[in-house]
Write a structure and sequence with these properties.
By secondary structure, the protein is an alpha/beta fold. The protein is built from eight helices and eleven strands. It has one domain: Alpha-Beta Barrel (TIM Barrel). 32% of the residues lie in helices and 19% in strands.
């Protein structure tokens, strides 16, 4: 399938999803700045600070803490509780296959890292007590309204492109999050396909419940969901993997913009070697975005907020976003 057709499919699906979202959920929103700058990550020990990112696991003798866990492969800092306390994560979202899905697909990698560093600098200038760790958030499996050859309603980034971006992230000391819009695919099967890549220190995982479809459901026609048991299973797979391979902890991002996207949320478990981030994924006006951040993300182990360059009106500025003290900010 050629790139134009892929982009067209992505555009159709995105428009359908946005229309459905507007019908089901109240509007969400943004502030007033565009891309900005930054330098590399600054790891600050903030264990005595009560700002966001506090970790339930606690003490220095735990495997996830600085000095106790594996050192990693040098591509990016190993993830630990100290690392998460000392740094806000900042990522650019999208797919190399579709410009309409976000900023990642709208720029060549070398240009993208320049824009990302500029955006990071804006936060670093304001956020004196915390460093900024940059990264890219790639939609690896993109949901689509067509069955496809395997009948799963998804298409995946090809191996060559995936490896190109993973290598690019390593060379630039970026984290890279591989996002799964599951369609009708089995979650465990899709995660297991990515495990060879997840062995690298800088590669992490994201799940998008919006596109996790049940039998008979089609992406873009319904809002999907994941249950706490599935999120726990994803965490279990990651934890077992890092323990078996003796590699640093993994971050798992789960997107949410309405209550029923994560069912039985109170049953989500705490896995010592997995840093679970609930990302408030809605768009709209700043007041509603911040309110939904408090509902979905602020009470999680780590909280994230997605900012939409083209859909948030007005676009939230960095200082306004920092008032919510998110652990992760994703720009789409």
């Amino acid at each position: 399938m050629n790139r134009r057709l892929l982009i067209a499919e992505g555009s159709i699906l995105l428009v359908a999803a946005l229309v459905l979202w507007f019908v089901i959920s109240p509007p969400l929103g943004g502030g007033d700045d565009d891309e900005g700058g930054g330098n590399g990550p600054v790891v600050i020990d903030r264990s005595d600070d009560d700002a966001d990112g506090d970790d339930d696991e606690g003490g220095d003798d735990q495997p996830g803490d600085e000095g106790a866990g594996p050192e990693g492969d040098g591509c990016a800092p190993p993830v630990t509780s100290d690392f998460m306390r000392g740094n806000m994560l900042l990522t650019f979202y999208g797919s190399p296959d579709a410009e309409t899905l976000g900023i990642l697909g709208q720029h060549e990698p070398d240009d993208l890292v320049g824009l990302l560093n500029e955006q990071a600098q804006k936060y670093d200038d304001l956020n004196s007590f915390r460093g900024v760790q940059t990264g890219v958030h790639m939609v690896y499996a993109t949901a689509q309204e067509f069955e496809g050859e395997d009948g799963l309603y998804i298409r995946r980034v090809d191996d060559e492109t995936l490896e190109e971006y993973i290598d690019f992230a390593c060379e630039n000391k970026l984290l890279i999050f591989l996002d799964l819009q599951l369609g009708r695919a089995d979650m465990e099967t899709e995660i297991e396909k990515l495990l060879p890549y997840l062995e690298q220190t800088h590669v992490h995982l994201a799940l998008d419940p919006e596109f996790a479809m049940g039998p008979g459901e089609v992406p873009g026609e319904q809002i999907g969901h994941l249950d706490a048991t599935q999120i726990n299973r994803a965490q279990e797979i990651l934890q077992d993997f890092v323990e078996e391979r003796d590699i640093p902890d993994k971050i798992l991002i789960v997107h949410q913009f309405q209550d029923d996207m994560i069912t039985n949320r109170n049953d989500i478990g705490d896995f010592q070697r997995v840093r679970l981030v609930i990302d408030m994924d809605g768009f709209g006006d700043p007041e509603t975005k911040l309110a939904k951040y408090q509902t979905f993300s602020a009470t999680a182990e780590y909280g994230g907020m997605k900012v939409f360059f083209q859909l948030d009106t007005p676009l939230m500025g960095e200082s306004e976003i920092l008032k919510a003290r998110p652990d992760l900010v994703i720009y789409q």
